Amino acid sequence: MYFPKQTKNELYRRLRVQLEHLKVPFTDDFVGTAAKSDYIIDAIFGFSFSGEVREPFPAVIRALAEGKVPVLAVDAPSSWNIEDGPPKDGPGKGYNPPALVSMTAPKPLIKWFQGRHFVGGRFVSHAIAEKYGFDVPPYQGSDQIVEIGSHGERL
Ligand SMILES: NC(=O)C1=CN([C@@H]2O[C@H](COP(=O)(O)OP(=O)(O)OC[C@H]3O[C@@H](n4cnc5c(N)ncnc54)[C@H](OP(=O)(O)O)[C@@H]3O)[C@@H](O)[C@H]2O)[C@H](O)CC1
Hints:
five-stranded mixed beta sheet; binds ligand LZDS7PUF; 4 helices; alpha/beta; Rossmann fold; 2 domains
């Protein structure tokens, strides 16, 4: 777990405590640890991301973009704008990870995404989906994710 910046958000503080109790190892060296990893989950930036990538993240985003280790991004490849998609320059230029999982519903940036796309969030009821105007994808059996194609079809 690379978690360089503590936020005041109580949920993230609790997440850290939970991971420590589970003995999940933490690292300050993202680039070195990433190079030795089999897989990376990118859940750094989502809705809150705006502007240029600030320290200490440029090297992290560059390593994600240029590394050979496969990445699964959560909601947004970090450095992408939720509405406008991938950055035209900066450390995230050219970053298009092989897989993305959209929590609850895909975000507008999905238009630019070229890898495998999954939707997760089976906890959303049909009533809530109807209220906010999105489709609940066809989850199979007890699956918590479903793979969705570029035209919204189940794969
Ligand atoms: N937020 C949610 O409800 C959910 C988020 N999910 C996933 O979690 C990650 C992170 O999502 P995000 O919403 O972006 O999280 P935070 O509000 O904690 O913000 C993270 C930090 O981002 C920093 N930030 C913003 N812009 C920049 C920038 N240009 N350079 C560097 N750092 C930046 C911001 O720092 P500040 O200094 O501005 O405080 C925050 O600390 C993501 O993967 C989401 O998809 C879950 O999916 C569920 C719901």
